[in-house]
Amino acid sequence: MxxxxxxxxxxxxxxxxxxxxxxxxIAYNKLRRKLKIDDGxxxxxxxxxxxxxxxxxxxxxxxxxxxxxxxxxxKDENNWREWILNDGSKCLIPxxxxxxxxxxxxxxLKNNDDIVLGIKPKSSLYEDQSYWVYxxxxxxxxxxxxxxxxxxxxxxxxPPWHLNIFDDNEYKIFIKNIKKLYSxxxxxxxxxxxxxxFETGTWLRxxxxxxxxxxxxxxxxxxxxxxxxxxxxxxxxKVIKGVGKYVDLLQFGDDLGAQNGPFMSPDVxxxxxxxxxEKMWDFVHSKCDCKVFLHSCxxxxxxxxxxxxxxxxxxxxxxxxxxxxxxxxxxxxxxxxITFWGGGCNTRDVLPGKSLKEIxxxxxxxxxxxxxxxxxxxxxxxxxxxxIPPENIIAMFEAVYEYGKY
Length: 406
Prior knowledge:
Layout: E1 23-24, H1 25-34, E2 44-46, E3 51-52, H2 56-61, E4 66-68, E5 80-84, E6 90-94, E7 98-101, E8 107-110, E9 116-120, E10 128-129, H3 168-184, E11 188-194, H4 198-205, H5 207-216, H6 218-243, E12 249-253, H7 266-287, E13 291-295, H8 304-310, E14 314-316, H9 327-334, E15 339-341, H10 356-370, E16 376-377, H11 390-403
């Protein structure tokens, strides 16, 4: 109802349905202790950002309505191994990860060919990209090796992408598990498909190079984006044929905005990126009823009209702390055409250190703005980081359920 821009009985709530609406495992372990949940260890499914899957007890407590399709996989304890986090607390991580700890205590994240794609220094909470396959080239290559396009930090998969859905046996597992999740729970199911365009360019070439490529090597940029789009549509076709009727939301990703504005001018976006998003999103809408969800951080106000025109249904994380992203402005100008998924609590200035009363007031104000007429799913602005106290997280979700009823 909310995505259809009608007011439901209460604001829908998300917690951890994708890799930008969740919680750092350190913060999650503190939350579990506060709630006296001690049956087993938390599961850190995303090693790059160190994110945990919210388990059923907590999803129930916070009245969560959406679930990551990845939670349908790796159900057997034998698929996980123990890991110690920076604060000394423990969790489980997928066994399929190729990890090494060097002499300095840094954690190296590798692909299956033992290329170190990411490094997490001993004092850091995250993996930093350490390898860019095309970074030292003068320009974008004329021909692309398919293996090269997957040599970057974000190609290390979180579930279900440890499976190769172009393998018949693994495709059957993919379909079976997502169908089971859809059939046996009441959650809306979110499946991350990624299909990043701008970000993949930066992951392959490096941020500085690719920002220059967009302006100085337009032909090379278009050649790369066309190759990516071609491959993504093959992936989307396979996904939709297998689980299109069991998934409610297909999650795309591309951080198009910095703090003060988009990474490129709206004209350049319209010329180079928009047609390729439109091609992918038209394909989705023509083949299934799944909603198109895009995660894009930063100030994307100037791009939202183009995204809507290209077929976008839902925008996340609604970074209202960035330039031109004021809640009132977004709702007034775009509220009838797009669903805001996020923006429900300020994770930079409010949630980490303000009083519980101030946190609840922030949530209420944002629900009052975004919730009118539907078109809003509650989530905080991006992931809950390691230093956020559990009391603050609980207060936020209590406020959503209290103030989000119509």
